[in-house]
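Students often ask why we bother predicting the structure of a whole assembly rather than each chain alone. The short answer is interfaces. A chain on its own may look different once its partners are present, and contacts between molecules only exist in the joint model. In this exercise we take two input lines together and write out one structure for the complete complex. Read the inputs first and try to guess which parts will touch.
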Amino acid sequence: MYKCNPPEGMRDLLPQEMVLRNHVTKTILEIYNQYGFMQIETPCAEKINFLSSGEGGENEKMLFKILKRGEKLNFSTTTKEIDVVDLGLRYDLTVPLSRYYASNHAKLPKNIKVIQIGNVWRAERPQKGRYRQFVQCDIDIIGSSNVIAEVELILATSEALRNLDFRNFRVRINDRRILVCLARYCDFEENTFDKVFIILDKLDKISIGGVREELEKSNFPTVSVDKFISIITLVLEKKLILDSLLKFLPNVPESVLEDLRFVINTVQQQAENEYSIEFDLSLVRGMGYYTGQIFEIEVAGYKYSIAGGGRYDKMIGKFLQGKEDIPACGFSIGFERVVSILKEQNFIVPQSKKKIALLYNENLTSFNHILSLARELREKGNFVSLEVLKKKNTKKQIDALSEYGYTSFAIFQNNEPLIIKEINTSKNHTE
Amino acid sequence: MYKCNPPEGMRDLLPQEMVLRNHVTKTILEIYNQYGFMQIETPCAEKINFLSSGEGGENEKMLFKILKRGEKLNFSTTTKEIDVVDLGLRYDLTVPLSRYYASNHAKLPKNIKVIQIGNVWRAERPQKGRYRQFVQCDIDIIGSSNVIAEVELILATSEALRNLDFRNFRVRINDRRILVCLARYCDFEENTFDKVFIILDKLDKISIGGVREELEKSNFPTVSVDKFISIITLVLEKKLILDSLLKFLPNVPESVLEDLRFVINTVQQQAENEYSIEFDLSLVRGMGYYTGQIFEIEVAGYKYSIAGGGRYDKMIGKFLQGKEDIPACGFSIGFERVVSILKEQNFIVPQSKKKIALLYNENLTSFNHILSLARELREKGNFVSLEVLKKKNTKKQIDALSEYGYTSFAIFQNNEPLIIKEINTSKNHTE
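Now the answer. The structure tokens for the assembled complex follow.
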């Protein structure tokens, strides 16, 4: 049987899993549509040079590369990978979005709000909960430098999560420019800032002692490390909050603070205590391309964030070849994490339609009355499935259909009048 | 700009295209769900050996192959492709379905009705209307040998097409076993039957003269070719119909005819003159795996069929290693063809929600009243987008938004009371 498995780290999706995934997709799309976001799509494959340009960071090491075809392929002169590949599977949706905007911006509104939902591929070491093909869901506002974009992204994303029954989640917010002020304040060298941030990003996993240890191991000046750790300690002790920030980091520009205050206050007022937002100086976000505010959403009881994003004003312009910067701000919902949390919590997908099974004896001479009845029932808004009656094991058959949400059963035998059974299953899948 | 294009033969999808594609997907899924079909999904990539097993026919020549990664890759010993690849992108959804069923059948009902909608990849020579990544939509009933499965597939597919505003389409139906009888009746050699069928399959394109020519060029016996052409001529002249079939091909088993009559009569009664179904001995269908009835749907005015399928009882069992045959019957809707026909006919996607744009002056000091108004309007069932007001060019901005279906506009300036404009565009995108 082994040879019938899907490729390592990739999945076959069963009908019940698809019902949940479709519900999540539909809910997310519906909410973002309500907020004026439009769906777009790029191909799953991109040119190999584009995917290896450096924008993808660590993800570029996990590329699935596609072999050249036909005459372009010549093994006799091959010494390395790049000679034989011309395409790769996308590892995220952000880098392709930049290319999409550069290629199509003339046909698009100047300010555009877009949503993408699609598969991405990464050749990670397979492990529980990590897949080599998985769905990402990215939402981006391109062309607006105003932080009202940040507010909209946070509000729409929170609304989507609320519609998926998430409650009391927490938005953490920071600004990359404040992190830069922090590193500068601690006298790290400018060209080592990213390395410092990458270590700080591990805080959740390795705690403050681990961060200190890694900084020391990397031979940063002791004075800088001490200063840095003392500030992060203040953050963890909730002593360094937004109102007291200037006391500890006097080099943060007022405009940056003002924008943060605006976003936090506006979101707080709109959230009406349904969820919370708070400043967190220790929030880093992995990718190097962020230029302004960054944010993550955490659900109580789960270690990993379920959504994250930020402003990246310098990336899209790069692909417009020498033209100006294009401001952009994005959010990414961890689609697979959301699905797995809902599964864990035995989330029941709401279903408005009744599922009816019409079980027929295969030897019937005419099916027209059954087919007409089925059509009538469908027109009335039901799901109706025709199934061959298992005469010797009808009970088992009905139980199996109940597992898929069927609650009404009609049996057609020997052209006799039909028998209809209404089953009230204890596990009610349909309401 | 060239370097920002997607890979050759692949597409970026604009928002308006996505609206149409999503409508087609949603309509198809909804109808098949009503008929008891459940959605499933396989990964986009499969193991290379599996995709090269021969089941895919010509499609296997158009494989996108994925390079091995890490230590498994060694160019110093490479002399051919197979040494350096381990995966490929799927070229259809039928072959992966067989693997899926073999791998998951223990977790699935014995009789299962499934629908798959997903991308497939073929490295075809790029040309107008042909893409290297495109969506397929396959519907299959597995586990039932009764021709009621054929009836259900034809009825559900017709219903889906009717819900996409297709009218007066025509279902052509034939049976592979009748084609075998025809070839046998004409005294072709058994091992050349497939070659004869492949030539007959070109009838639409090369007409009867072309078929004769190709048969003669392939050195088939003249007596066989003459007999064959005379029968196909009778078909084209509508002289060979189902009722007269035995007169010309006395070797066709009665049971095969009976099944055909059953399907045609049942579908005709259910169709109520909304569409038609007719026997067509010249229908072949490309793939070699069909074992029983085959069918195609044609829309008046279009050369290519928009859906096609048939029974393939011998394929799925192969992957269950030595166990019995698993009967199966499938239909495939030409998703891209359906989309391009609808586009050509300027099909307007029905939209139940009103689209409202709230245009705000960036310098406003508080956004809470706008955000609260937006939320209220969304709760009432509208799509509401916040947009930065272009003070110098408001008319152009409103025109641009109208293109995307917005019909109501509110303008917020200097914290003054808002101005609301209702625009009745002549191109009404929203009803």
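Check your guess against this: The longest strand of chain B covers residues 112-121.
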